[in-house]
Write a structure and sequence with these properties.
alpha+beta; globular; about 40% helix; YaeB-like fold; 5 strands
């Protein structure tokens, strides 16, 4: 059974910032490729929501997975509602722990 994916209101800005960074340093082809890799990682969470490293030290129920070679997606899972909530997406050394804690 699949889980429904929800995103924190600031996740779209996270993705915009990642694309903007990649456009500047690597060009549009790489930016598009990395964005697609991130979106595929998110979609996979609907079928395998319990993957990743549990990071209760950040907050209870926090999980983190690597994506697109230099990215991190943090999320939590609500099994009762069958939902995955994406908290933040970072790339290229952005402090994903601090950003996750802030949200």
């Amino acid at each position: 059974m699949t889980y429904k994916i929800f995103r924190h209101k600031e996740v779209e800005q996270d993705l915009f910032d990642i694309v903007d960074l990649l456009l500047e340093y690597a060009g549009s082809v790489i930016a598009e490729k990395k964005l697609l890799e991130i979106e595929i990682s998110i979609k996979k969470l609907a079928h395998t929501p319990h993957i990743g490293t549990i990071r209760d030290d950040i907050f209870l129920g926090c999980r983190a997975i690597a994506t697109a070679r230099k990215g991190v997606i943090t999320f939590n899972v609500d099994d009762a509602k069958r939902e995955v909530f994406i908290i933040c997406i970072t790339y290229a050394g952005v402090d994903w722990i601090a950003r996750s804690e802030q949200r």
